[in-house]
């Protein structure tokens, strides 16, 4: 059984030489140990020392030296715009205050589609539209995934004191 226990970050390897590719949504890109099969049928075991958030373009290095490219799958998202930068920053603050994974795209934001959050954004003066796109949210200062640890317990990285 082929095994992968090393990741090469996007841009740090020649992805044109990839032996295969795995297409994963945001949740599927946060893994530690999982059997995977590439688009061309290459099967291998991802076996990392700790759960890791894989990014689009990362390379999964197999024990035989070949590399499998990670591709971010398109998923239903809400794209958020605002009439000006001040309004967009205010919306981003509210999303962060709710610990929502958010992709920062300069003049717009993307979140997982959620009608309650869309209503909140529109109440704050923003505009939303449904899009299908790869989701690559900001990792955050503590690089938590959805604010939960590996055991599913909610973690608050805030420092008190």
TrEMBL record:
Which UniProt keywords are given for this protein, alphabetically ordered?
Chaperone, Cytoplasm, Nickel
Functional note? Involved in urease metallocenter assembly. Binds nickel. Probably functions as a nickel donor during metallocenter assembly.
Organism equals: Pseudaminobacter soli
Q: HAMAP family of this UniProt entry? A: UreE
Q: Where in the cell is it found?
A: Cytoplasm
Gene Ontology biological process terms, A to Z: protein folding; protein-containing complex assembly; urea metabolic process
Query: tRNA processing among the record's keywords?
Result: no
| Region (Disordered) residue spans | 136-161
What name does the UniProt record give this protein? Answer: Urease accessory protein UreE
The record's similarity note reads:
Belongs to the UreE family.
GO cellular component annotations, sorted alphabetically? Answer: cytoplasm
Q: Name one GO molecular function term.
A: unfolded protein binding
Segments forming domain UreE urease accessory N-terminal: 1-68
Record flagged with keyword Transcription regulation: no
Q: Which domain of life is it from?
A: Bacteria
